[in-house]
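USER: If only I could read backbone structure tokens as easily as an amino acid sequence. It would mean a lot if you studied the pair and described how this chain folds. Here is the record:
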Amino acid sequence: MSFRRDKITKPIFSWARGVLPAMSDTEREALEAGDVWWDADLFTGNPDWSKLLKVPPATLTPEEQAFLNGPVDALCAMLDEWKIFWEWRDLPQEVWHFVKREKFFGMIIPKEFGGLGFSPYAHSEVVRKISTRSIAAAVTVMVPNSLGPGELLMRFGTKEQQERWLPRLADGRDIPCFGLTSPEAGSDAASMVDTGIICKGDFEGREVIGLRLNWHKRYITLGPVATLLGLAFKAYDPDHLVGSQDELGITVALIPTNLPGVKIGHRHLPSMQVFQNGPNWGRDVFIPLDYVIGGKERLGQGWKMLMTALAAGRGISLPSLSAAGAAYAARTTGAYARIREQFGISISKFEGVEEPLARIVATAYQLDAARRLTCAALNAGVHPAVISGIMKLHATERMRTAVDDAMDIHGGKAVIDGPQNYLGNLHRAVPVGITVEGANILTRNLIVFGQGAIRAHPYLLDEMNALADANRERGLAAFDKAFWKHVSHSFQTLLRAFGRSWSFGAFALAPDAGDATPFYRQLARYSAAFALCADMALLTLGGALKRKEMLSARFGDILSELYLLSAALKRWQDEGRQKEDFAALEWCMATGFKTIENRLAEILANLPNRFVAVILKLIVQPFGARVLGPSDRVVHQCASLVLEPSAARERLTPDLAHVDDDGGFARLERAFKLVAGTDAIAKRMRAAHIRDWKDAVTKGVITQAEGEQLAAAHEAVTKVIEVDDFAPEALSPIYKKTGDVHQFFQELGEQRAAS
């Protein structure tokens, strides 16, 4: 007999069982999917920095690097985003043949099944490079290697299924897609009405037990061209042919699209992006049970399978595209600001331009840092579900800000569409990333903290499992053990948060990281404050916290900042503490600290239990939110990282697609190099108050060769700032009969006058 358990814990246990809200099967399966990793350290309130710094950086094998330098570069050279969008509305046939032949669709499939067997980091690098050349091509390559039949077969398929389907997926004989979203069920996938009824039927001339399927799916990427559809549906067994239950739950199966009853719809046009996407239907489609991924034993386990696969996929595909978009925005916007002059000076000298340019630069630095750290976890076999949600949410949101800033700085150059506009299509594509793979609004308000508070917390999941145990005595014993550890942990966190907040983190543990050491101390301080406030919110609100979405979102923002800032510190350390890059790190830390302090203030201002809120404020924020963000000095230094050719600029924007053609990006790169190379010559002319280079040559200020360099630079800049225009008949069929817009309107006016 235990006095503590029976006299103290037991009443708490009984009360908690009564107030704990019921957890649906889909909620439980989502919580159990994937792993916890560095997010668990952050939730302790006392992160072990040595653990983070010991994580091996993600690297490429020689074979993976050769693929990037070979087939990926060759593919990029085949792509013309304007023609893909404006003329073809699709990838050209030679590109489809190339990506199949070179096994772009089989990057993650093991070599034993004919795939390339690449690491998550290699997958990420491939998507990253292609996306800086063509969004349509990047999405086409990305989807088969993310959530879909290949990933699910590798994780859950039977040996027979793997041997049958994986080689066909690897070499492109089959093009896969995955049908999850339906008109009735978007973010709430559990509400899908697509059904599979277990019954007997004829299949390939024999009677077998199988499923009769009826479904309607939409927004399915690669759906219009897919030959193999991964399908999520709810399985039912009314005649109890496989068991005693009527409702088996969400199930996933493979559906060859040539089966009777399968209908492939017309194409969607998502934000004017022309990657293949569209709806499909199934009417009384019969499949045998061995088409269920994992076979009969996996009936009803589809949601957990999907969540497990998504835990990895959400950490690779869209974060890679987003990191690439931010890096591309940094490189192009820095170059354009450098070469574009207004009022006789480069617009890069305007502080109004420096501020958004610095934001782009630091965003590019941080997103790629977080992408690499997440890939390092994935390379090690970890599937961090909460971190993948953070990555998808914040990578796409921050790409949106970076691209908007780039558009603002470019002005009319980026607004006028045409072959020379290297930013417009990226800007149009941003909403796609915001909405797919879990809408950002719901990810922020419900998932990041809602899932993280249970999965990453050191004791909460153990307590919840104990409370839900059908065996009351066993549950009480488990709860007693976890609860008192939780109490001890909370008390230690309170003392830690108090000491670090009142001392501004001066005595928090930190590694010897040179100039970055103080940043580790501040992160440790904020981690303790976050952990304490999260515990108190859970204690005072209980299950009601998940309905307080704005509070949950603010906690999620803090957790996200803690992870993203950890990644930035890790990158600076891994790259050898490059002094030139420190301004980008400073910008990230100052902005992140400001966000954390503001979110803490908002949480304390809105926590329903006002007594607890006042006590917490005295502990974690006694002096209020004090961080103002990056200083003007940091903004200036950060913006300057992309204004001159340098090693720092290359580190910030590595491995983008560089194709030596006459496209807008190639023109910009050439002009940037020429302008930077003639800077000293231009300064001598300005000092002599001479504008025409020929006059400067005549007066001996510069040489003839230097004058010709200036002329070449001026010509290159002129080509960059040009924008596209089109003949009226090229844009509208209205004018095709006359071929002359003026004549068209003259005739129209005469007709109106006559009438």
Observations:
- Residues 472-502 form the longest helix (31 residues).
- The longest strand covers residues 206-221.
- Residues 14 and 467 are 9 Å apart (CA to CA).
